[in-house]
Amino acid sequence: MNIEELRDYCLSLKGTTESFPFDEMTLVLKVQGKMFALIPLDNPETQISLKCDPERAISLREEHSAIVPAWHFNKKYWNTVIIDPSISKALLYELIQHSYDLVVLGLPKKLREGLC
User: Fold this and answer.
1) Domain 3-111 carries which CATH code?
2) N or C: which end of the chain has fewer CB within 10 A?
3) Structural domain boundaries in the chain
């Protein structure tokens, strides 16, 4: 799994856009202007930071050493997933989808139309 594959999968989710609002080295993926994924482009290991509900975040961190609290967000709600052999593509895509779904469900009803 590489950065382009992560980016392509995220962009395949309906309504997703990308930007570089922090610096030119952090790709931010949003749905309706709300962040659901960040990919640092200057990191030697491929990783992605994703939103997660607090209970699930704790259990994921206990099950997978490659999932750690995100350094730049509330540690209860964001995980950084370091892409290594212990993280399957299926699990990674599930985590991305979960993050996307959390953001979409938090949007006002009018903005959710066509995304669910």
Assistant:
1) 3.90.1150.30
2) C
3) 3-111
- Over residues 89-98, the pLDDT tens digits come to 999 999 999 9
Is the torsion defined by CA of 62, 67, 68, 70 positive or negative? negative
The residue among 64 and 83 whose pLDDT is bigger is 64
Phi/psi at 78 (5° precision): -130, 140
Task: Answer for the pair 27, 35: CB distance below 8 angstroms, yes or no.
Answer: no
64-101: b or e for each residue (b if 16 or more CB lie within 10 Å)? Answer: bebbbbbeebeeebbbbbbbeeebeeebbbebbebbbb
Other beta carbons less than 10 A from residue 62's beta carbon: 9
Distance CA 68, CA 34 (A): 22
